[in-house]
Design goal:
This protein has 196 residues and is α+β, with helices and mostly antiparallel strands. The protein contains three helices and five strands.
């Protein structure tokens, strides 16, 4: 058998235990601060009026009213009943919209990294956080919109051939409620808005 060499532990001096715990807390706070700084930028969505039902996905096309402002409150873009494909807008805009529901109104803060980053676009300076007020009117999947477009094209062909009155027997009618059609993709606001 081997004998283990024993080293006697020295008693902890009075007040040292508190200093040790303070050191442990300081290290934990520093590690938490580093971890927080390493987190990816987040979009903040505040509900002004709650919507209902499901939320859109990144593959959907939404119909919205929106107003975009700079941190100083200057409006750089706004529009009513605008259809937008969520996979064709700045990342922060789509991240915000997938958190919304039909009929809801929201305040959204998008950090510069999820907006235009270090590029200046129109009235938007480089490295600028953006604020939006968004009302989600409706949304549909690309497949639904494409199906409605095909139906509208068939209806137009029938009309050209003398086949009947507009809208006769065609459920759905317009591609998006409000009559905003989306030819070959989503209609996008000016380059200064949430488009890529």
């Amino acid at each position: 058998m081997t004998e283990i060499t024993r080293v006697p532990l020295q008693p902890i001096a009075k007040g040292s235990l508190g200093k040790i715990w303070l050191g442990v807390v300081a290290v934990a706070l520093a590690a938490g601060g580093v971890a927080y700084a390493a987190l990816p930028p987040q979009v903040h969505v505040k509900t002004l009026t709650a919507g209902s039902g499901e939320s859109p996905t990144v593959a959907d096309v939404v119909l919205i009213n929106y107003k975009g402002t700079l941190p100083d409150g200057k409006v750089f873009d706004q529009a009513q009943q605008v259809p937008m494909a969520l996979n064709e807008v700045i990342p922060g805009f789509s991240k915000a919209l997938v958190k919304m529901q039909r009929g809801g109104k929201y305040d959204v803060e998008i950090p510069a990294k999820l907006a235009y980053g270090d590029k200046a676009v129109g009235q938007i300076p480089a490295n600028t956080d953006l604020n939006f007020q968004i009302e989600l009117l409706d949304f549909k999947s690309r497949a639904e919109i494409e199906q409605q477009q095909r139906m509208m094209q068939q209806l137009q062909q029938m009309q050209m051939q003398g086949g009947g009155a507009p809208g006769a027997g065609v459920p759905g009618g317009a591609a998006i409620p409000g009559g905003a059609a989306i030819p070959g993709g989503a209609a996008m606001p000016g380059a200064e808005g949430p488009a890529r």
